[in-house]
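Hi everyone,

Forwarding the result from last night's run.
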Amino acid sequence: MKIAFLPIDNRPVCYTLPKIIAGIDGNIEFTIPQRELLGDLKKIADIDGLFEWLKNLPKQDAIIISLDTLVYGGLIPSRRGKESLEDLKLRLEKLKNILLSKNAKIYATSSIMRISNNNFNEEEKEYWNKYGKKIFEYSYNLHKTGTAQTDVPNEIIEDYISTRNRNFEVNKIYLNWQKEGLFETLVFSKDDCAQYGLNVKEAQELELLGGFTKTGADEIPLSLLSRAVNKSMKIYPVFLEPDYKNLISNYEDVSVENSVKGQIELAGCEICNNKENADLILYVNNFKHHQGEIVMKTETEPFSKTFQTPQKPYMIADIRYANGSDNIFVKELFKNKIEDKYFYGYSAWNTTANTLGSLICGAKFKFFAQKYNKNCFKKLEITRFLDDWAYQANIRQILKKTDENELSLLMKEFEPIIGNVLNSEIDVKYSYPWNRLFEVEIWV
């Protein structure tokens, strides 16, 4: 099977992770553009170069596209860019003509512009550092009550609303393409959601027009990659805190149970209500009362039971904390023998949706691999444990700056533990691809 994949940007979870997952099946011919063409925190993608890459693609069975990359230059530029709707329509017409010329199933995602509840402008327009929280409150109240008062300057509110309206009109154009049959699947992603907000309102309006919206963002291209493997496996979810599966995770607007169901279905898989008939068990280390977040110093009640791996294929979504593992659960997990025959993956990457989408994708590629590459699967799991557990839940908490030498020294403590659990030699290097502590690149 031939699959082409256009990521959101050049972060490891967007660029390297899908390459590793696709490599689990040696029968997949996976094509991805050169990393240099993609955008980063401060640089937009080489849009012309990516159009050429897409235009010159040889025959593919499936093409997975992050539309924000081609139209705005990436997810972050979609919030910052100053292009007019008319300028963007020229790109859209060019994109549509190229896609129509491809005799392939096209799986696409486009973001609904997020609203961050903070005064931090690293990924937003400059004025977010002063007015971010107030704009969030304005958006929240405007959706909830229909009116809102704010002391944010009028020109800033007008600029913000203008950017939102522009992006919303672009999404409606994509929806028309979907109705014309251009896309096999089109997903509108909802990043960093709350109960109310103009982003939630736009999602509701898109749904009324026939669009499909999904809580999450960075994992959705991976979910579409799963879906492109047009086979279904039956997944039986087991919530380690079953009485609390109705709670809502940080940065989401649906319950944990519905998030799990939604991610399984988007991946083209089936929810199974009988453990014996399931192809895979999905263990969900969910939270009581509220989700913790280590980097924000938000504690929650940690895992307090025993955990024994089954003699049946299984995978683990560790979502007790946002953006990092539950240390107590990992310690309990590592008491078990992790056998390649039964183990289909572990993830605790960022949000609940991020964790689930990436986890299911890796498991599905392993389950249906016609030419199983055990080393690629080991590489995937080494990366997840080093990133989600060693780095995010532990080392990141004591770092003050992006010093790669310090990082390498501190990570050495965890490498033999993971190597022993996975029965693998670990030879890795580390870097900070966006020169910030939020993400680390692990070169296995």
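The CA atoms of residues 292 and 321 lie 4 Å apart.

Cheers,
N.
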